[in-house]
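Hi F.,

I've been meaning to write this up properly since the lab meeting, where we talked about keeping a consistent format for the predictions we share between groups. The idea is simple: the sequence comes first, exactly as it goes in, then the structure tokens exactly as they come out, then a line or two of notes. No screenshots and no reformatting. I'm using this chain as the first example so we have something concrete to point to.
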Amino acid sequence: MRTALGTKYDSATRAVVQLLAERPGLRASGDPAALLTELAVVRVFAEEPGAYDAAFHTCLTAGLRRLPTMRGVVVTGSRQVNHQEGSKFRLQGPMLAVAAVGAAVPGETELLIWTNTARRLEGLLDADRRNDVVLAAHTPLRVLAVEDNRLLLAEEGAPTERALSNLRAAATARAAVDIPHNPNAARWFGALPAA
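Output, unedited:
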């Protein structure tokens, strides 16, 4: 992995070493070399989401399992999609999102997602990205509602009424705040499978 990623790997491992110094509990889980590599790969993905090979995704999946989960509403953007209420699908790949209702996201369609399994990246990234999360590849999602250019989604198995109530509250909160332009918002952008 170090050879494949080059300087990106070296930069990411510095951030991981700092994280492990601040959170010694993470060090207690298995082989230190594997831990370092897996978390470095998570950081590389968070900095530059995109297409990577199978070895990268294997390390990414293992690294995400080491991070704490997030339960609540996250937001991301997507190209225009034509999913209808009740549609079910699985994410084709890992997707970055942000657990800050007022965050600017790119794309024609805004996705508000109720998640129980997204992994928090706080501490692994710079302080201005403390609310970033990753939804793992193959996360099953269900469309609870379609409202103009916004999809309200929940992970499969989530209590529908509770999730929808929280998602609508988040949508109302987004409508009530002036969402600033964020030139770095492109990282919170993912492709959903076509309906």
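Notes:
The first strand starts at residue 69 and ends at 78.
The mean pLDDT is 84.

If this format works for you, I'll send the rest the same way.

G.
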